[in-house]
Amino acid sequence: MSCFGETWGLEYSPDEIAEARKNNRLLSMELELSRRCNLECVYCYASSGRPLDNELSLEEVLDAVDQAAGLGARKIIVLGGGEPTLYPHLFTVLDHILARGLKADLFTNATLIDDEFARRLARRGIPVVIKMNSRRPEVQDFLAGRPGTAQAISRGLEALVRAGYPDGEMKLGVETIICRQNIDELPELWRWARNSGFTPYVEVMTWQGRAKEHPELEVGPHELKELFERLALIDASEFGRRWRAHPPLAGSHCARHEYSCTLTANGDIHPCPGVAISVGNITEQSLGEILESSKVIKELRNVRKMVKGKCHSCEIGNLCYGCRGHAYNVTGDYLAEDPVCWLGG
Predict the structure, then answer these.
(1) How far apart are CA 207 and CA 210, in angstroms?
(2) Radius of gyration over alpha carbons of the chain, in Å?
(3) Cα–Cα distance between 10 and 95 in angstroms, integer?
């Protein structure tokens, strides 16, 4: 996952991606530290809240980072599958990632970030993505499952700005999940983020975890098309950024299946957060052995050739293969065409 992917540019070159794909190596890895969370977001892919009974020890987490580095990873993305700022060893993990010469991105709901915490992140130059689904307090609080969340996010954001974010490589992103309750305000949220120097990261929701309990969140393909095209027009006319509208990410695209994987809090390896299929566990096998032996990983490494339906014949298939997570959670087939995409035949 490229947290700050802009327009059509890939985070890694086609040659780098091809080498990683061919040799079962990595360019990045997504890392869950714990499922513990102080919110109960109604769309949460991991149904986070309480920690798992068998979460990895700190030593196992650090060893997993070492294994990823040994397989060529250049970046570790610390996910919000659970809230990482609650993890007592977060800075130990971040320092270990940096000491290995890797980059680190942090996804957080920002509700627990104060000035000192923000300064500690800034001193390390850690890019941060905060989860903000609405600037309307009542909507944000509903989606987060906790009253007062909007105010707490604002405090965390303000602390990060006081600490110097965004500045150069120390970027600040705003991740927003598209749903029925916020879709009408997303063009203005996009403008606000751009004008503030934040990277907007607007994405389609996958039907997994808690989202399956909330059908009232659903947005159909026609409305998604209208939203993405409006965001593309805003970017082109107001900010000089041009990109073609397609799911699952506005202004960017997903290529993670060709070079990444997700390490969950209990050691399971998944292809990505959306395709929650365990292909092995690092407490039982090495990361390299898991990637080498997994049929699922191999098929998704070759997703552009193996994807089905309209995604297979799409004219922009060299850049996009739709959302594998959405395809998997709706159809049960991670190679099926993306059910919410409006492109293709």
Answers:
(1) 8
(2) 19
(3) 26
Q: Residue 74 carries which side chain, given as an amino acid letter?
A: R
- Give the C-alpha separation, 161 to 118, whole Å: 8
**Residue 331 β-bridge partners:** none
Q: What is the mean pLDDT of residues 75-91?
A: 95
Q: At what angle do helices 137-144 and 149-162 cross, to 10 degrees?
A: 100
Encoding tokens for residue 171?
């970027």
Signed CA dihedral, 271, 275, 278, 281: sign only: positive
The band of 7, judged by pLDDT with boundaries at 50, 70 and 90, is: very low
Distance (Å, rounded) from C-alpha 161 to C-alpha 142? Answer: 25
Angstrom distance (rounded) from CA 250 to CA 219: 15
Strand partners, 175: 131, 201
∠ CA 18-71-259, nearest 5°, is 35
SS3 content of the chain, % helix, strand, coil (to 5): 40, 10, 45
Q: Which of 88, 86, 138, 142 is nearest to 110 (CA)?
A: 86
Helix or strand run (H / E) with residue 334: none
pLDDT, tens only, 146-170:
999 999 999 999 999 999 999 988 9
Joined together, the tokens standing for residue 20 give: 């990683």
Q: Helices in 216-255 by DSSP H: which ranges?
A: 221-239
CA–CA separation, 274 vs 46, rounded Å? 9
CB 326 within 8 A of CB 339: yes
Task: Please identify which residue in the block is written with the tokens 């970046």.
Answer: 75
